[in-house]
Fold this protein.
Amino acid sequence: MNRLIAATMVSCCCLLPGAHAQEPWHFEIRMLGGNSFDPATIAIKVGNTITWINDDDNSFHTATSDDGTTFDTRVESLSHSNRVNRFTAAGEIAYHCRRHPAMKGRIIVSP
């Protein structure tokens, strides 16, 4: 029962529409038509999570760290797919869409 409640809480938190910050520790980045991330640059803290949401009904997108190892959302389906990543170390992370190399973003993770 507790697992179901926890899973429901996580699902609801991650799928709420609206502003980019859902909780003080959770943020959303949207993949938009026109091949852009919104916001393109975001500042978060260690332990925060980001959900990438594909809001483009016409194209597949990913969010892949430029180093190829920090994260790769592999969001390769149309419209409203999402992946959640937790950031555990401070630093700056540049990322891009594997399908659209000019589609770029940056995450600034502070302690």
